[in-house]
Write a sequence for this structure.
């Protein structure tokens, strides 16, 4: 979401036009322009505030723990078991169908 930037001309256009003699001396001094607001980048350090501390504590609580590596069956078994089961079932189907014919 873009940040709204103040427009310097809006303050001048809202002020009523007055002759230079009617304007007090303090009003004639130029207004120092503050730097424009900017978005924080990845390298910016967060301000130390209670909100940031609470957020850091909550992130630690919600972060998933390091998952242990799951032990899997060996590759030859994961390939041979479905193929062998399929062949066995097809043999049983064909054997049963031979009695029906």
């Amino acid at each position: 979401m873009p940040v709204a930037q103040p427009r310097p001309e809006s303050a001048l256009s809202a002020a009523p036009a007055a002759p230079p003699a009617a304007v007090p001396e303090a009003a004639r001094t130029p207004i120092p322009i503050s730097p424009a607001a900017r978005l924080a980048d990845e390298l910016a350090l967060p301000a130390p505030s209670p909100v940031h501390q609470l957020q850091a504590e909550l992130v630690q609580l919600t972060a998933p723990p390091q998952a242990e590596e799951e032990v899997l069956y060996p590759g030859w078994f994961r390939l041979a078991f479905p193929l062998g089961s399929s062949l066995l079932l097809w043999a049983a189907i064909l054997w049963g169908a031979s009695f029906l014919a």
Notes: The longest helix spans residues 75-100. The CA atoms of residues 18 and 84 lie 97 Å apart. The helical segments are 8-14, 25-28, 50-62, 75-100. The two ends are 74 Å apart (CA to CA).
